[in-house]
Design goal:
With about 120 residues, the chain is mainly α. Helices cover about 60% and strands about 5% of the residues. The protein folds into two domains: about 10-75, Winged helix-like DNA-binding domain superfamily/Winged helix DNA-binding domain (Arc Repressor Mutant, subunit A, Orthogonal Bundle), CATH 1.10.10.10; about 80-120. It has five helices and two strands.
């Protein structure tokens, strides 16, 4: 699924995150061929260097691997790596700030849990 880019973060990161999302959503599985740089350039109408930067980061992190002359493929264990990375980011970006704000507002742990359960049911 193609999502439009936003102005909140660099485009190469958004390209990267869209490929990561495809892996996390099982649209791309281990050893599946990832979209080529040229395909992404043509679909998004963005610079080749921009796409390459996002792809290169995924290769450097062991999420994708190159088959010379064939393309990029999803590595074995890529989904597991991404889940671990995103869980850590989730804790750092959301949970830590949630707890800090809850402490300022004197919201107890049990109240936080109740609020989360309430919101999750909606």
């Amino acid at each position: 699924m193609i999502k439009p880019f936003n102005n909140h973060k660099p485009i190469f990161l958004q390209v990267r995150e869209q490929i990561e999302d495809q892996i996390l959503n099982n649209q791309l599985k281990e050893d599946d061929q990832a979209p080529s740089t040229n395909q992404l350039v043509n679909v998004y109408k963005i610079n080749h260097v921009t796409v390459s930067k996002g792809i290169t980061q995924l290769v450097d992190e062991g999420i994708l691997y190159k088959k010379r002359g064939v393309g990029m493929f999803v590595t074995e264990g890529a989904k597991r790596k991404l889940i671990q990375k995103r869980k850590k980011a989730f804790v750092d970006d959301y949970v830590v700030r949630l707890i800090q704000e809850a402490n300022k507002l004197e919201i107890s742990e049990s109240e936080i849990i109740s609020l989360i359960k309430h919101v999750k049911r909606k």
